[in-house]
Amino acid sequence: MRLTGAQIIWETLVQEKVDVVFGYPGGAIMPAYDAMLEYPIRHVLVRHEQGAAHMADGYARASGRVGVCVATSGPGATNLVTGIATAMLDSSPIVCITGQVATALIGTDAFQETDVTGVTLPITKHNYLVTTAEEIGPTIREAFFIARSGRPGPVLVDITKDAQQASCDYTPTDQPVRLRGYRPDHSPGARELDKAIDLIRHSERPIVFCGHGVVAAEAGVLVRELAERLEIPVASTLLGLGGFPATHPLAMGMMGMHGEAWVNQAIQEADLIVALGMRFDDRVTGKLEAYAPRARKIHVDIDPSEIGKIVKVDVPIVADVGETVRAFLEKLRPATRQSWRERLAVLRGDSAVRDIVTLPDDGHLYAAHVMHDLWRLTEGKALVVTDVGQHQMWEAQYYKHDHPRKLITSGGLGTMGFALPAAIGARFAMPDEEVWVIVGDGGFQMTSSELSTCAQEGLKVNIALINNGFLGMVRQWQEFFYGRRYAATPLKNPDFVKLADAHGLLGLRVTKRDEIAAAVAAARADKGTVVIDFRVEQEDSVYPMVAAGADLGTMIRRPAKTVLAETGEDS
Amino acid sequence: MKRHNTLIVTVEDRPGVLNRVASLFRRRGYNIDSLTVGHTAEPGVSRMTVVVNADDDTVRRLEANLYKLVNVLLVENVHEKGAVLRDLALIKVRAGAAERAQVLQLLDVFRGRAVDVSADNLIIEIVGTPDKIDGLVKVLEPFGVLEMVRTGAVAMTRGAELRLVAAA
What we know:
The structure holds 2 protein chains of 2 kinds. By secondary structure, chain A is an alpha/beta fold. Chain A has 3 domains: 2-169, 3-Layer(aba) Sandwich (Rossmann fold); 190-348, Rossmann fold; 356-540, Rossmann fold (3-Layer(aba) Sandwich). In chain A, 39% of the residues lie in helices and 16% in strands. Chain A contains 24 helices and 20 strands. A 6-stranded parallel β-sheet of chain A has the order 3-2-4-5-7-6, sandwiched between helices. Chain A has a 6-stranded parallel β-sheet with strand order 11-10-9-12-13-14, with helices on both faces. In chain A, strands 16-15-17-18-20-19 form a 6-stranded parallel β-sheet, sandwiched between helices. In chain A, helix 23 (516-525) links the parallel strand 19 (506-510) and strand 20 (530-535). Chain B is an alpha+beta fold. Chain B folds into 2 domains: 3-81, 2-Layer Sandwich (Alpha-Beta Plaits); 84-154, ACT-like. Chain A, domain 2 (Alpha-Beta Plaits). Chain B is built from 4 helices and 9 strands. In chain B, the strands form 2 sheets. In chain B, strands 5, 6, 7, 8 and 9 form a 5-stranded antiparallel β-sheet that branches. In chain B, helix 3 runs antiparallel to helix 4 (130-140).
């Protein structure tokens, strides 16, 4: 059949089973928008293109399917950049379709012209400039294939206006995409497998690391089987949370900068690390020279360039995590590790005593209370999308995720403003789930314009705004490392309840712990998006903490004495 | 330990591929000694020869990163393997009538040749391994090297042909 390039865009998207796209129209993408009206794809009009990219990302992370965003040339496309970089660092499969000025105008600094493939080259898995209608179909199919295969990532397709307007013959195909230079799949080598199995068998103090790859490869069940059969405790990276059930007896929780001190200490004492689908980020390792000095390391990752990038490993396995763990399970018999479990119990020691959640209500509202109570009230079942900063770490510490794809957060890039738009994307991917946004007062204001999107689309997300009147994480660093000189961290905020109201949405305010339950219940009962302004303790800090560049074993702990003094007890 | 590694990178001949490869080197902080690009016998396929000064670990990761580029078909580190390595240089050297014979004699030893002669200088063309060209430049320096241009190394493995991996 004879179709315009613009029609072929939507034909291909329908064929890829895309049901929703997030975007913003403009000159160079208008032919595509005009053609869109003939196709059964829902379009969500964002308020800023950054939101569109985050929505596609949130959609992808919640569902495992490819998320799609659309923008025009020039500023439309450059506004996507932060969202693309976020998806790149967290290996999230999204396809970005951007309009480009007409082919004849490329390179002339035409109105709204930017070299978008040039700009996005280092932050996409791959990108394309398409200048003819004939190329549009095959290119978009390649883009989807590349985005979701191997180590997933963002792919951008920049399509000139004349290519959208031109017509050509189009025949849909369901032939698999073949790319000569692209080999996304890897299988574990027999020799490496044997070596790894031998190390696991003979280890006395092993720890399994559950990374984002476990979630992406949908290998959680296998990892659980491995941990249970061999009695190996499991520590998670931030993006691995939920890959292994947090309430499982073998779950250690999060490792790294704001992981629990005993977990990091255990890593320093371990004799074997089985790292599954993670990349030894600096927030995970602390000072490299002192990292896990007693441990042999097995590193399983689908991306060969991650092996040996940061940490020298004893057994590199470039393969799918699921396939590798399945191969482990074929050869490994049940084992017990009583003395290691006992040692971990000793290390865990007084961490519960220091835990702020267990302290009696002293009239102050701590963010940790909000996370803990939200976890209780939602029975741990909510799909939580967090922004970046203190609240993100508190969420990771206090909201126990038992299932994968229930925590969506910007890990690698640490993108403030991520949460609300990503939650909107997740809402479309998972219409039946209860979605909670947990966001700071700083990050919220970076993309709070997407509240209008929620109102316009009639969306239901619950927003727990952790409002401490500061850019909290930076303030914490200033307190710890810059002599409490609060340079540019105090915030004078708008009235967030009124802001919600201005959008026709319900806004609530909570200032005491005993008000949390009622506010959460009211939010859950409301049909639209709700903003709860939690006025939390202003100068609370996230404990424990490994200072940047410090040895993982030396953590700044919550000062037990201060906390006790606050409760009026005497140590 | 750092040393010179020569990578043969076979790529699809598409717009922007050189940019992708160069961008990767820049982004990951690798230092390129030389980079050459040209067509191969197969239409639509180009080939780059990249010489980098790096340790083995770094080069292994560089290869892995090159493979991640969708348009890269094959990466071969020919350092250990038997490979023919050639560089071409044009060198303008000061040589009046008095020195000319002496320079031509040196060229004979290095199998270079004069491709242009003027009253007080010569243009020399030499093809050889980068080491050999370095050697010639050294002996020409006393005469006065006025100008030099080098192509950078191109390489080819001996024996069996480079195997292009079939599509995934």
